[in-house]
Amino acid sequence: MSNSKPYIVAEMSGNHNGSLDRALQLVDAAADAGADAIKIQTYTADTLTVDVKHPRFQLSKGHELWGGEYLYDLYTRAHTPWDWHGPIFDRARERGIAAFSSPFDPTAVDLLEKLDAPMYKIASSEITDLPLIRLAASTGKPIIISTGMANLREITSAVDAAKGAGATDITVLSCTASYPTPPEFTNLRRIPVLAEALQLPIGLSDHTLGIGVPIAAVAFGAVLIEKHVTLSRSDGGVDSAFSLEPAELAALVVESERAWQSLGTTSIGPTDAEKEGLRFRRSLYVVKDVVAGEPVTAENVRSIRPTGGLEPDAIGTVLGRVFQSDAAKGTPLTWDLV
Prior knowledge:
This protein is α/β, with parallel strands linked by helices. Helix content is about 35%, strand content about 15%. The strands form two sheets. Strands 3-2-1-8-7-6-5-4 form an eight-stranded parallel sheet.
């Protein structure tokens, strides 16, 4: 069990819908919900791709959210303008939560360093961009690496690149890079496998609907949960269909901590919280006033709550015996009575 509750990251992505005011409202919503951090993405369409209308630059027609859209157009619509980064970071600091980003090229790292970003996240599609990972790691900041689509060799290579560049604080996120992700493809059982293989803390970057999957991830040892957030799914937006609304984010904060608290230890037996309950287990009691010489019967001795008398299983031994002294109703039955 981790020594602290899961770290909750609210991913803004493109859910600002092209409005700085909405972006700042999302920061406020994340802070109000109790999230630990708000995350954005630092790229432009030109730093990610080129404006070419060719099928290789086009999402499949059947894509659930962005079918048929060209990469350049999608990234133009979804990106967070670089001159918004300062106001977003400032608002987060004012609200007492961390603000950080996923850089997608060296110019993004340069910008984020000027803003004193406290950490960096490597997006799933950039896990094979080892030069980018080394550059982010060379800042000395904590590095979070998302692993959607990656095999163990690619994950290990990314971790080694970060370590080789000086990173000492690395968190790896189990991730399924489909949007939205069907729960059955989340494969939470790989969280402890990754933890054992990498000897690093493991979290979850989740794109399923709702909060059930990330809560379950906590039981498998996830120390960080990242979920996309929006002010309202009905407002639309590039990621709104699989994003949490503010009330849902607040529920995730509360329930993930509750799930973490519930992990406890491997001890089997009564806990401190059960001490009162132990008093009210059943035992054998005199349930009717009796006098010495009277036989023990099912009418004057029964198994009732609380404890104090003989174990319930002793009933077969005491039935038919004789009371050695008077006993009032409510007296625990003990061996010296019969």
